[in-house]
Amino acid sequence: MSTFDYANQALRRDMAAYARALRTIVEALPEARALCDKVLKEVRLIQALLAFASSPQIVALTQIAYTISNLWAYREQSLARTLGFTDEINEARAYRNEAQRAITFLARHASSDPLANELTTCFNNIVACLEEEERLLIECDQAIRPHAENMEITRKRLNLLIAAIDARLPATPETATILASYSEASRLLHDWESGVPLDERGITILETCLDLLERASLVFPSPSLNPGWGGMG
After folding, report:
1. Which residue among 49, 156, 198, 231 has its CA within the 20 to 30 Å range from the CA of 38?
2. Prediction pTM value
3. Domain range for residue 91?
4. Distance between CA atoms of 111 and 129, rounded to whole angstroms?
């Protein structure tokens, strides 16, 4: 197998595996976002309850609630990269710790204070949601992490194939078609290293690239295509 044949096959394998990983994420993320929605509703209820009281302790609880409301799912372009979910996982853990801190604080009053009881219920619900969200995010991270770490070599393989086609294949209509297919795949993956969208659009991009590569069916039969770098194989 020549250098170019290997690069072509490896590139298709990379993209197919990446598409499978994205499917896992696309199925899990809506559930994770739904959990974020539940957390935000509990925060709003907490804020409405706290409006009926005033003390330094209430100020502290208000600040905890505000911190928890700043969830990744509502920030700009939260789903536009595929470099793993370490930040989101750490955020879920940190916010869960904040909610547990509030529960510990409220435990001093919950037995006799109806407001404290209601607030404790809210923060307990938040803890449960954030625990489940963290589990889903870890699943997503494990699915995408190998491909995030492999993005650079995938891009290099694609660039190698485009350069090889342009430099070594004869200038025929068939060659032009193959080159156009690979160039289109390169265009679609121009932001590969920063990630394709983590939704159905991302899967469509990857599947389109796979289709382009399969239709090109690039095999380098000509000896002139094999650079003969025997010492570097």
Report:
1. 198
2. 0.72
3. 27-148
4. 24
Residue among 41, 27, 60 nearest 140 (CA): 27
Pair 31, 119 in one domain: yes
Name the nearest CA neighbour of 79 among 131, 40, 137. Answer: 137
Last residue of a domain, one of 131, 148, 165: 148
The DSSP output letter for 75 is: S
At which of 148, 165, 193 does a domain end?
148
CB atoms within 10 A of CB 231: 5
Res. 228 pLDDT band, cuts 50 70 90: very low
Residues 48/100, Cβ–Cβ less than 8 Å: no
State whether 144 and 155 are in the same domain. Answer: no
**124 pLDDT higher than 90:** yes
Q: Residue 89's closest CA among 26, 32, 41, 31?
A: 32
